[in-house]
Amino acid sequence: MATPLVVRSTQAVVNGLSMVVYYGCPDVVHTRRGRTLVRAAATAAAAIAVIPDLRDGAAELREASGELRQAREALRELPLPARLGLVATGAGFSALAVLGSVRFEKWAFRTGEARRLAGEPLAHTRTGLVMGALALVTSLIPPPQAGGGGGGGGGGDDDPEVPDPPPDPEELDIVIPDDARELTAVHA
């Protein structure tokens, strides 16, 4: 079995090469249909490269099904306007992401075409190399550890470098005489 570093490196190389092919194909393939087929193949290669991550993600989802049920119940308890607001916000962000992607794709193609018309050789490949390098570098970033929660802090068993904060004595139902509280306040 391959180590995580080998898998991540392979994914990074495949993603990088897929992006170079995806964005650079207009320099080699001149028909729209041909470009669509080449880009579909490049996208499929990138998708196949991340199958191990998808399997891990599916396993994590199965493990977190209880938490997902709790979240679903909490959402059902929200009033209707709040739920509609959440749906509208999600739909808005999704629409912005799609719109931004389409605009970027059109911009990248038009920029490459302008370079090609100016007589620059491999005009689209330049964009492909930049996008491929970005894909390669971002694919090398390891995913957050399962149960780590991302964003730092929290401590616990997930992050051995950050110690747990000391418990509050009042939360533990420990009776501390008033004299002891005064002593700790003086020495603190």
UniProtKB/TrEMBL annotation:
<feature type="region of interest" description="Disordered">
    <location>
        <begin position="141"/>
        <end position="177"/>
    </location>
</feature>
<feature type="compositionally biased region" description="Acidic residues">
    <location>
        <begin position="156"/>
        <end position="173"/>
    </location>
</feature>
<protein>
    <submittedName>
        <fullName>Uncharacterized protein</fullName>
    </submittedName>
</protein>
<feature type="compositionally biased region" description="Gly residues">
    <location>
        <begin position="146"/>
        <end position="155"/>
    </location>
</feature>
